[in-house]
Description:
Rossmann fold; 3 domains; nine-stranded mixed beta sheet; six-stranded parallel beta sheet; 33 helices; binds pyridoxal-5'-phosphate
Amino acid sequence: xxxxxxxxxxxxxxxxxxxxxxxxxxxxxxxxxxxxxxxxxxxxxxxxxxxxxxxxxxxxxxxxxxxxxxxxxxxxxxxxxxxxxxxxxxxxxxxxxxxxxxxxxxxxxxxxxxxxxxxxxxxxxxxxxxxxxxxxxxxxxxxxxxxxxxxxxxxxxxxxxxxxxxxxxxxxxxxxxxxxxxxxxxxxxxxxxxxxxxxxxxxxxxxxxxxxxxxxxxxxxxxxxxxxxxxxxxxxxxxxxxxxxxxxxxxxxxxxxxxxxxxxxxxxxxxxxxxxxxxxxxxxxxxxxxxxxxxxxxxxxxxxxxxxxxxxxxxxxxxxxxxxxxxxxxxxxxxxxxxxxxxxxxxxxxxxxxxxxxxxxxxxxxxxxxxxxxxxxxxxxxxxxxxxxxxxxxxxxxxxxxxxxxxxxxxxxxxxxxxxxxxxxxxxxxxxxxxxxxxxxxxxxxxxxxxxxxxxxxxxxxxxxxxxxxxxxxxxxxxxxxxxxxxxxxxxxxxxxxxxxxxxxxxxxxxxxxxxxxxxxxxxxxxxxxxxxxxxxxxxxxxxxxxxxxxxxxxxxxxxxxxxxxxxxxxxxxxxxxxxxxxxxxxxxxxxxxxxxxxxxxxxxxxxxxxxxxxxxxxxxxxxxxxxxxxxxxxxxxxxxxxxxxxxxxxxxxxxxxxxxxxxxxxxxxxxxxxxxxxxxxxxxxxxxxxxxxxxxxxxxxxxxxxxxxxxxxxxxxxxxxxxxxxxxxxxxxxxxxxxxxxxxxxxxxxxxxxxxxxxxxxxxxxxxxxxxx
Length: 774
Ligand SMILES: *Cc1c(COP(=O)(O)O)cnc(C)c1O
């Protein structure tokens, strides 16, 4: 090994391995793992291949994961140690690729990991964003966004010689393909293909993350999810999406033909999984490229429908993409005749049911200004293209991502589609990479489990169940407790170093880490903090000191989400300045929550907060990660929490709040009035009003907190006040339980032992058995 490393060091830096600095060592190790991955066995040309299309891949750092999967981590660590270095130091200089946003992107990455670990043939296809989503910083207790460049440093990307010309209505761009080799615990490797343009120009980004949204030639691959609050932003997203699918279709058909197969056999040799609606234009684009190459239109539709499968990730209407027909006509005119024909097929079949149509007329209000400068409104019909609708009609499968979510799709959101295509619908409950989120990031826990039950659980996660034989073994329970404690010490040290905030590891670590969204209800957790604070001021203390840890980015244009971050940061500062309260309660929002942070926080979690409004969280995967690391969940009966509850039993999960059915009913009947709860419950009123109190406003921008306060008592669309009292009651019960360490450690062990189902290896096997058949 050391010879290999020296050779590579000579080749890249003209010196031997031990003379390198940390960044150079990173480069050499990353080069080494890429080389080893590229040498791995290739799957046969005659097997069907999966193309996983996704706007995001939240892949996390790669080095440690790759070294582990290649089985050389220990050896490398030993060599590093001999040179006075640790792997952690080398990992610290590795940039985390800014290619994703949240759960959906992380899922895509866990899937690539599991596909590879199971030696299944499947590549990811996406976009090589130069500046990512954004990097989160805090200033004056508010979120500030700055670019998150990762390509300028050493990284593992490999430039290929695959290029493609992408034509838009008004310009042509040359696409270049970059590859990231993907490792798994199996014998083969797969690839993440990322398309880019050579004319991307980071220098057009000024003051935060602002840039000229019309300068497509320079901005196309700069950011993931550019602000779509205006038309130019929405257009940029269409440019990005088409860029992704045009290149994906080109690559898929090229590989098919390179392997000696005919275009007519596409569905035999390829399957395309459409991760949410962002890549759904792959359907008309594949049809376009097939017909251009001589396949008849009807036949092309048939082949493409048999090749594509669609995953729905949300029932939130704002996320089911709809594009103005006129915008598509301007940006991707070549798709318009195809979309029209697809729409005709559907309207002829189902003339009466407009909700099934792909292109629909929607009345829209437009503001005009009269000659005397008075605004007035006109009503105009505009044509809208429904991307999810197209994806369901013209693919072979539609799946939800947890049982409850799939049931809601069938019975509610997509019921008209379910009626006509019952055979297309199925559930594929999400999963996570156990390797990344426990075996490699919580080695102490993994090693101890191996000592207890052997390492068979690493190949078959259901074997974790064998841990149940230790449920009454106090020695074992104490050891698990000590491992948790060590993880908490590690996290406190890291947070002290990076955020300069001290967390006492004797406190309960209560963790809510996920994108900031009102439906996920970080605001309800903040109200819990306020309620606890007010009680402490009255001399009523929580049963055990608690540290509430948040990690969350808010979309730059999502004002209410940013107001909630502001509230949490103000609470953090208020409590930091109050020694007495700190004896019982701490709050911290960590900066720039990402995969790297997740891997550090999750092993240390005592409580996992999964408190979305029931029916709104499609699955959640953070819940699975923390369960696997022995946290106890407090949550609503939402998403995969429902299945977690089934596995651990109701004594080992803390459930509260209204059910999905009750919530759906409230929306249907307009039956929820937050003002009534606010007016009729003193504790709720006190907590809500504290948001605009003088005490807090010392640290706050009053207008932001006033907007939040006003929203909560007049609208509260995601019903935080509805569940608040029950949440406070149940959370305090859980905190009380923590004072019985044996009982708490038993719950923790039950959670680890029953997490096996939530491995992404299981999810991938389900997709493969039912949909892909690779
Ligand atoms: C797992 C993960 C998520 C998704 O978390 P949810 O709780 O399921 O929303 C988001 N961000 C990162 C960095 C993750 O690792």
